Amino acid sequence: MIEKRKHIVEFRDLFFGSGESDALVLDCGKKLRSVNIRYETYGELNTSGTNAILVLHALTGDAHVSGWHTEADRKPGWWNDMIGPGKPIDTNRYYVVCSNVIGGCSGSTGPRSVNPDTGKLYNMDFPVITIADMVRAQHRLMQHLGIKCWLSIIGGSMGGMQALEWATSFPELMESVIPIATTPRLSPQSIAFDWVGREAILTDNNWKNGNYQDNIPENGLATARMLAHITYLSDESMRQKFGRNLQESESYSFDFKRDFAVESYLQYQGQRFVERFDANSYLYISRAMDYFDISAKAGGDLARAFKQVSCPFLVISFSSDWLFPTTQSIDLVKALLKNRIDVSFCEIESSYGHDAFLLEIDVLGKMISDFLRNRLEAVNGR
Predict the structure, then answer these.
(1) φ/ψ (deg, to 5) at 307
(2) Is this prediction's pTM over 0.85?
(3) Fold of 194-284
């Protein structure tokens, strides 16, 4: 409770695009007007403006990266062990910004927002978005906050994709990049998993072409979450946590109810997800990940995509991550080295799978803390 009282945070909103001239132009060719970006900040921007860090969330994350909104909250922000006073990303030293992506359902404009042209919910009239669209919206936030250059841009999983998009779209606006457990382009296997998850939602009778009201497509969304959650774990972590343990009895039920502990766990994860996430947002954000290929802007040449980049990188992968395996991080490292970019790379040994970027705080935190301290000293020493 002591930490809660010290680390209560409030969300903020940035509204823009009320007029045609400042609407957000999207990759699909459409414009998004009356845009809201929900964000949170931690710490204070120093007088020289050199200590700002942008933290980017994964597929189902949000702007609430650390601390509590109220003392009654059950859980803190999603990276609370990493960010805060005295923590690896020390908010006594750094000014940390995190925003909810457009297309999301946690305050930023998305498919369940009101369409200013109709006065009704967008639902499936919401334009298809890309990772680059998310980054362009975040750039608007950067301008609003008066930040001239990020000390670092940090992201895990889909957050890492956004970090790479920032580096190639706005290479002059950052002093360093830390992509974690991510990929420079989504693999066919990952696209396949996303497709099956979306099909679960689209074939739920309650989805109603995206126009659901009180009866939301719970079964489809829960199934999509269960499928995705399997990819976030590893075989070893599931063996250690569940084995073949039975959940509710000492023998098989000889029917199709949940027998195993791992089945009960996945069902719980699906139910909890339905309580906090929107089905249409899941469709849009997962599609944005499918389209992500940082080499596409350079004709498929990954190295050439980073030709304008000059800042140092810290690239981190995890040994048991089979969703975004180390080989994909190595592809990124090779592309950066071809451009003579200063790159530090580490594969952290972990049994947690893809979720390791949220859980391996001791090792990950030390690496990030040291890297950021060195970058801040270098920038302030110029």
Answers:
(1) -60, -35
(2) yes
(3) Rna Polymerase Sigma Factor; Chain: A (1.10.1740)
